[in-house]
Amino acid sequence: MSKQVQFEHVARVPLNNIKIKDDFWSYYINLVRSVVVPYQWEALNDRIEAAEPSGAIRNFKIAAGLEEGEFYGMVFQDSDVAKWLEAVSYLLESQPDPELERTADEVIEIIAKAQQEDGYLNTYYTLKEPGRRWSNLAECHELYCAGHMIEAGVAYYRATGKRKLLDIVSRLADHIDSVFGTEPGKLQGYDGHQEIKLALVKLYHATGNERYLRLAQYFVEQRGQKPNFYEMQLLERGGESHWTGIDHAFDLEHTQSHALVREQEKAVGHAVREVYMLTGMVDIAAETKDESLLAACERLWDNIVSRQMYITGAIGSMAQGEAFSFDYDLPNDTAYAETCASIGLIFFAHRMLRTSQKAEYADVLERALYNTVVAGMSRDGKRFFYVNPQEVDPKACSGANHKFDHIKPVRQEWFGCACCPPNVARLLSSLGEYIYMVQGDTLYTHLYISGEAELSVGGSTVRVKQSSNYPWDGRIKLEVHPEQPGEFAVALRIPGWCKNASLSVNNETYPLNGQTIQNGYVRVARIWQQGDIVELTLDMPVERMRSHPLVRGNAGKVALQRGPLVYCLEQADNGANLHGLILPAEAKLETKYEADLLDGIVVIMAEGLREDAASWPGGLYSSESATALREEKVTFIPYYAWANRGEGEMSVWVREKL
User: Fold this and answer.
1) What residues act catalytically?
2) What are the Non-reducing end beta-L-arabinofuranosidase-like GH127 C-terminal domain coordinates in residue numbering (predicted)?
């Protein structure tokens, strides 16, 4: 167990205390407010003609007795509405919007009418399988849907002060508490798709009711107990499975129920479930000061980021089960890498930061945020990636080879299983939560996002103004305005990708050494005055990144990274057959800001080589010399920006010629 772990409560920074004014991120946040949330509202109401129908709002209306009809969609369809409400809540907390709030209130009224007298809330079982509640926990997402609705209830209460949804989800949690437990007559089961635990901890914070924290603990401790509850329920159902051809009750690793959580050694199974589980575990460990539970989180964190994470911060390499595979199995062209999994990894990293302020957690958070999460949505906010491959050939995605069926060369308007779009919306609308953290008398700056914040540090109010052109430039300026002169510390992250940095305070050089840098943060402790200025400069050269030798698909290849951004080749710049491109080891890597390309990006250019297919001697195989190489300029763009210029090939990794 790390000695730096601190179980002191780290307060959440209210979003109305954070004003993001950032050239890079303001675009996305405004897009979520003006386009994404309204677009998703139309999708949830089945009003986008070209998109797959959702049925989510109509399900609630039918369950509420406001319309007639049958349940439509996936067993977890309710969660799309909950995540939309949560995103709306964060937007309202950041900035009032009476019309948006009125729409949310109308949805909440419908949800209230759909809730059963005993507090139960789930439109699938209410409409489609009444009388079979809690009969298939392994597969049917009741606790997952409940968790997302609880998160929405807490977020809406924080944003508006209105208790209606909070009271609804409190009644729901009370019902769940009456059903589950080790007492006689209760179900000794636990969630299939994990989500409920982290939601219950949020509800505990909002209400102060310790029963919710104890219930979250129960779900953690019960997971992996023998005999396995899922298997027992399967026998009770006579072997009936909800999903055709899939039986999660026997695939215990898929649901991380193969062992007690404290005994699990590596990340396995469904990637989103894994990181949601770990997020809840960290929350519970922090609240209960449980060092052994936190040690399990640290062990699984290390396995994920050192052996099972793509360079873009994506996780879950295997399409089968949307799951982790084995260590170092990170194929590029068949990668699953669900957007939701990277969002879950961000949740996990953020919780780890609350217990131990180590830059490695913020580094991973930043990597997933700037690459996979932003790549998950088009620049117009109307199309989305469910999966995020590292290499794409549209020919392979045409249906000719079914192992690529999950790969899409362009983003989709909506999905029958639409978990990712509202997840992106709720993360980006709550981005302000992730920039700063106050622990004791230290103000930590985790992310470099321009704007203003008002924070309580050591019992005093401190206003901070941050400005930069990040991620294109590494010069960051922090203006510190304490309410009155006071002694505290400001800690700034030195990212793991940065090999050289410099810092000044009021134009005086501040040393960066083993005494001032702790766990990747430079800590500036002094008596701060109004208008003190901290300037941090992070060198941001282009780096050639290489994989661990056991990652088979990247042998002899490099990827380019500049600052937090991973780059890729795209057909729009380099033509087809990207696999034929080679980057010489001595090639000079030049950067250029292109204001008119993809709303303004820094591109990387180099003199590369291309195999000349015309020089091939003939036939499918040949013993004669290899194809000739011709010089060709190659251009790399940030990975997040790919697939915004039509369909084409893409590749993160390129062969290197030594």
Assistant:
1) 322, 419
2) 542-655
